[in-house]
Amino acid sequence: MARVPDWVEPMLAKPDGGRLRTGPGWAYEYKLDGYRCCLRVAADGTTVLTSRNGIDFTAEFPSLASVFGNALGRAAVLDGEIVACTEDGRVDFGLLQERRGRYQKHHGDAPFDGTPVRFLAFDLLRFGRVNLLDQPYDRRRELLERLPMPDENLVTVVPAYTFDQLDGDGLTPQDLLHRASAEGYEGLIAKLRSAGYSPGRRPDSWLKHPLIRTQEVLVCGWKPGQHGFTGTLGSLLLGAHDPATGELVYLGDVGTGFSRQDRADLQDLLEKRARRTHPFAVAPPREDVARARWAEPDLVGEVQYRQFTRGAGRLRHTSWRGLRADREPEEVLAPTAMPNPEPAPRRPPGKKITVQAGKRRLTLSNLDKPLFPDGFTKGEVINYYSHIAPLLLPHLAGRPVTFIRYPDGVGGQQFFEKNAPQGKPDWLKTALLPSTGSRGSGEDIAYPLIDELPALVWAANIAALELHVPQWTVAPGPKRRPPDRLVFDLDPGEGTTIVECCRVAERLREVLAADGLTPFAKTSGSKGMQVYAGIRTRSADAPSKYAKALAERFAAETPDLVTAKMAKALRPGKVFIDWSQNNPAKTTVAPYSLRGRDRPTVSTPITWDEVRRCRKAGQLVFTADEVLERAEDVGDLFAEIDETRAPLPKR
Question: Which residues form a coiled coil (predicted)?
Answer without folding.
Answer: none
